[in-house]
Amino acid sequence: MSDTILEAQRAPTGIRSLSMQQALNAALSDAMALDPRVLVFGEDVGALGGVFRVTDALQSRFGESRVFDTPLAESGIIGTAVGLAMAGWRPVPEIQFDGFAFPAFDQIVCQLARMNYRSRGALPMPVTVRVPSFGGIRAPEHHGESLEAYFAHVPGLKVVSPSNPHQAYHLLRYAIAEPDPVIFLEPKARYWNPGEVTQEPGALEGAVIARPGRHATLVAWGAMVARCCQVAELAAEDGVELEVLDLRWLKPIDEPALAESIGRTGRAVIVHEAPLSGGLGGELAALISQLCFGRLKAPVERVTGFDVPYPAGDLEDEHIPDVDRILFGVRRVLEYGRG
What we know:
Radius of gyration: 20 Å
Helix content: 25-40%
Order of helices and strands: HEHEHEHEHHEHEHEEEEHEEHEHEHH
């Protein structure tokens, strides 16, 4: 691990209770103060501070040359980031909403993800693409998507999604210090939830156990981690101890953590907001079958969004896995083979 990344793991300022939005803002501010090569840009990130105010006051602190607005052209935003990285900068572009990432896919897949490989290491891409992601805020069309499987499929990209303010701060600092391109998926529904952010980052690579248990493992990331913890609390009232594994890194996937947790509980329920078909849950289920085949007590269960375009507004509540749907998934793996 490089000295730069080790330095990025240390929070230079005392941080206590913050929302995820505030934690991300603090991470950007501290990263820019530490490294003058870090640049922040995107649609309305300057004077406005971003639609979610994640970049609030950064322009006034660091100036318009380091925090600046771009045209409404996502392909141009990522193309600019690629060029800046080639010139030695550490760009942190923002895609304003996850659904706006589609116009940028050509640049992400064909340039950002491949440049280091294409140049045989001569042109690393230390670019962190921030993407407010997933649903939960009842936004209009194109403002709520689950794109993790698209990004995780692309060789050369790393993909991460924090589930709480502490992770948001330290994982963003870590991502910015990385020499490789990172897609940083921020769960919009968790922006305003407060949490403790300490100076000690803890482990920043791989998955973490959000709640220990022994009867089954719930595998989730982003906003679904908190929902799975809620499910675990309810299940505990009936004597069922569910482990919640917060995957965090969706590329690369922490295979040892999967094997340890699910090999111990013998049952797995994967929860994500994206549609079932072709979702990241399918890749996880395949890995779990390979790693834990002899120890599984039931088939791997997936509780996901439906195979429809991501719905807008009031229909969103029907699409995102809720407590009842997850509990039914848990029931299926616990009762498998009985009778």
